[in-house]
């Protein structure tokens, strides 16, 4: 894969996405022409008409098709390869089935430049709300955050995103400093956008726009979606719940293994580090015990109350 240099890089991994891909491309490419960026696309082994559709757009001056012989890497591996292969000042992760609203790129660029000032040019990640639409593009909700009952301020604290991802990758824009810190993704990565958010919460500055900058399409083949992908904990079987907790704890432990000094830099990081090393059933008991003490309360309370509501554990 050829490494390319540009100021703004939108990274798109496609897989059997022909149904909505043209709508996505038509919303992104004009904004890149206006702002001076490029869209880098890697297909992850599609078997439908995705590659033919991309070929039809290949003459566009803002589109770069990246080719390799690695086959299907999965969503995490494919986005990791894109980020490793492209050098830019700023990065956006794009989903093939969504589409941008007018002004998204300009708004997020203005926001991250202000965020970078706050950290002296260090790692920064910004994000926006999303309009939620159905398969046909009809609005389900004007606000992803309201629909999911999420507080956009949560990523300001590492403990708030330790066990739950609250920022879809398609709503993010981040700088080269954050990319350099986040790569390579550890084996324990649950989802690439969650790992990027964890690194930003631990090492950088985050900021958000309250208005939606993108339409987030919900359909039957989403890799992640409402109440079961992004929210992560909304499961109805205890076995799945424990498996999700195990994966989240392993990802959190990977964060502290890469940066052992985090335990001394954040008020509650040492508690998080110890929590990350627990067996998942031990973690359930710890969450129940600490829910009223204010220690890692944001996620402990959510997790413990949900378990009790499902009747899966006892006080």
Description:
- The structure is a single chain.
- With 315 residues, this protein is an alpha/beta fold.
- The protein folds into two domains: 4-217, Spore Coat Polysaccharide Biosynthesis Protein SpsA, Chain A, CATH 3.90.550.10; 238-310, no CATH class.
- Helices cover 43% and strands 20% of the residues.
- It has twelve helices and nine strands.
- The protein has helices spanning 18-35, 50-57, 74-85, 104-118, 144-148, 158-161, 176-182, 192-203, 238-258, 269-276, 280-290, 297-310; strands spanning 4-14, 38-43, 63-66, 86-94, 99-100, 124-133, 139-141, 172-175, 205-217.
- A hairpin with a 5-residue loop joins β6 (124-133) and β7 (139-141).
- The model is unreliable at 228-236, 292-302 and 304-315 (pLDDT under 50).
Element layout with pairings:
Blueprint: E1 4-14, H1 18-35, E2 38-43, H2 50-57, E3 63-66, H3 74-85, E4 86-94, E5 99-100, H4 104-118, E6 124-133, E7 139-141, H5 144-148, H6 158-161, E8 172-175, H7 176-182, H8 192-203, E9 205-217, H9 238-258, H10 269-276, H11 280-290, H12 297-310
Parallel strand pairs: 1-2, 1-4, 2-3, 6-9
Antiparallel strand pairs: 4-8, 5-9, 6-7, 6-8
Helix pairs in contact: 7-8, 9-10, 11-12
Output mean pLDDT: 84
Q: What would you call the structural class? A: alpha/beta
Count of discrete alpha- or pi-helical segments spanning 4 or more residues: 12
Radius of gyration: 19 Å
Order of helices and strands: EHEHEHEEHEEHHEHHEHHHH
CATH class of the largest domain: Alpha Beta
Helix share, percent = 40-55%
**Which strand-content bin applies to the residues?**
15-25%
CATH architecture of the largest domain: Alpha-Beta Complex
- Strand runs, count: 9
Gross morphology is globular
Contiguous uncertain segments of 5+ residues? 228-236, 292-302, 304-315
Largest sheet, if any?
9 strands, mixed
Oligomer: single chain
Tally of discrete structural domains: 2
* CATH topology name of the largest domain: Spore Coat Polysaccharide Biosynthesis Protein SpsA, Chain A
């Amino acid at each position: 894969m050829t490494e390319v240099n540009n100021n703004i890089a939108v990274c798109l991994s496609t897989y059997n996405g022909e149904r909505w891909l043209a709508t996505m491309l038509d919303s992104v490419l004009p904004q890149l022409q206006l702002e001076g960026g490029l869209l880098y696309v890697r297909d992850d082994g599609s078997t439908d008409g995705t590659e033919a559709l991309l070929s039809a757009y290949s003459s566009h001056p803002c589109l770069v098709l990246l080719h390799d012989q690695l086959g299907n890497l999965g969503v995490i591996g494919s986005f990791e390869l894109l980020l490793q292969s492209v050098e830019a000042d700023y990065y956006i992760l794009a989903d093939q089935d969504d589409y941008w609203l007018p002004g998204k790129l300009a708004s997020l660029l203005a926001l991250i430049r202000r965020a970078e000032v706050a950290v002296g040019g260090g790692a920064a990640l910004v994000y926006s709300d999303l309009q939620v639409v159905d398969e046909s593009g009809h609005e389900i909700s004007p606000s992803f955050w309201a629909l999911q009952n999420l507080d956009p301020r949560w990523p300001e604290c590492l403990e708030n995103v330790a066990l739950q991802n609250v920022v879809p990758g398609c709503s993010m824009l981040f700088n080269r400093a954050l990319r350099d810190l986040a790569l390579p993704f550890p084996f324990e990565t649950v989802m690439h956008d969650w790992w990027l958010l964890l690194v930003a919460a631990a090492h950088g500055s985050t900021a958000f726009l309250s208005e939606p900058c993108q339409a987030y399409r919900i359909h039957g083949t989403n890799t992640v979606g409402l109440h079961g992908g992004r929210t992560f904990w909304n499961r109805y079987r205890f076995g799945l719940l424990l498996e999700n907790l195990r994966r989240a704890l392993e990802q959190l432990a990977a964060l502290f293994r890469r940066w052992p000094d985090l335990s001394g830099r954040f008020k509650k990081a040492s508690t998080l580090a110890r929590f990350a090393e627990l067996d998942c059933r031990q973690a359930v008991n710890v969450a129940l015990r600490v829910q009223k003490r204010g220690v890692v309360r944001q996620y402990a309370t959510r997790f413990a109350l949900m378990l009790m509501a499902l009747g899966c554990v006892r006080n």
